[in-house]
Amino acid sequence: MKQVKKSVLLWYSPREMYALVTGVEDYPKFLPWCARAEIIEQREGGVTARLHLAFAGVRQAFTTRNTNTLDTQVKLELVDGPFSMLEGTWRFIPLPASGGPVAEACKVEFELNYAFSGGALDALISPVFDRIANTFVDSFVKRAEQVYGPR
Residue 5 class from Cβ within 10 Å (0-12 exposed, 13-18 middle, 19+ buried)? Predict the structure, then answer.
C-alpha cells in the first residue's frame, strides 16, 4: 500500500477549498491528467464519480464514492478501477482571523491510501499514479488562485 499525506495553510476559507474539491465536473479544466469526469450519482451528502486518466500514455478510469461533510471534509472510497484499494480524505480546518470568528484561512489536509491489483497493469500505472497523487494538493492550490485570485 502507498500513502500520500500533505497539508498546507492557505488564505482561502474552508468553504472555498471545499467547493473546489467537490466540484468534480471541473477537474478536467485544471487537472492535466484528468481527461474526463462524470457524476454517476448525486445524493444528499455526496456523489459517486468516475474520473478518466490520460497521462504519460496511460489511459485508465476509476470510480469513487465521495461522502461530503459541508465545508469540512470529503471522504472517498473505491467503487471500481485498477486499484485493489483506494481511500482518501480531504479535511478543511478553519483558521479564524485574529479578533473574529470568520475563517479567512484554512489548513487543508489530504491523505490518500492506495494499492493496485498487481501484475503488468500495476507496473504500468503505479508510477504514473504516484506522480499524480503527489500533485493533488498543489493542483487545488493553483486552482484556488485562478478562481478566487491570489491572496
Answer: exposed
Q: Furthest-apart CA pair in the chain: how many Å?
A: 57
Domains in the chain: ranges and CATH: 2-148 (3.30.530.20)
How confident is the model over 29-86, as pLDDT tens digits? 999 999 999 999 999 999 999 999 987 787 889 999 999 999 999 999 999 998 999 9
Q: Could you please report the per-residue DSSP string of 19-69? A: HHHH-GGGHHHH-TTEEEEEEEEEETTEEEEEEEEEETTEEEEEEEEEEEE
Residue 26 CB contacts under 8 Å (≥ 6 apart), including other chains: 20, 37
Name the pairing type of β-strands 2-10 and 58-69. unpaired
Q: Per residue in 8-40, is it b (16+ CB within 10 Å) or e — as a string?
A: eebebbbebbbbbbbebeebbebbebbeebeee
Looking from the CA of 112 toward its CB, the CA atoms found within 13 Å total 19
Tell me how crowded residue 91 is: count the other CB atoms within 10 A of its CB. Answer: 19
The residue that leads in pLDDT, 65 or 132, is 65
